Amino acid sequence: MFASYKRFWINIFNFSGVSNRADYWWPIIINYIIGGVIIAIVQASIGHSIDNIYTIGDLSIAWERNLIVLIVWIATLSVRFRRLHDTNRTGWWVLLDLIPVVGTIWFFILMVLPSKPNRWQ
Description:
By secondary structure, this protein is mainly α. The chain has helices spanning 2-10, 21-46, 56-86, 102-112.
């Protein structure tokens, strides 16, 4: 679990390799849990929703949140590309997730498929 999460961050800009199912799913699950805990702590400490900006401090928190979200989004995009490569598909299949409902379901199915020998290894 921790090795998969470490590889997630080490390969943040690697869009050409492969990632097995564990290397995809463990970071996704861990990031959701960590994100939820951090948001709950920040909202409890500032006393209101993280989306509301009332002071300069709130603006600072919003900028920091957006920067962290961008970094995690880039790392998640790269692991999605690598996971698709592991199922012998091109990274362009990631665009399937942009189709509402059906695309999201189909992309989820692609992420749970077993690994295949492919040209990216």
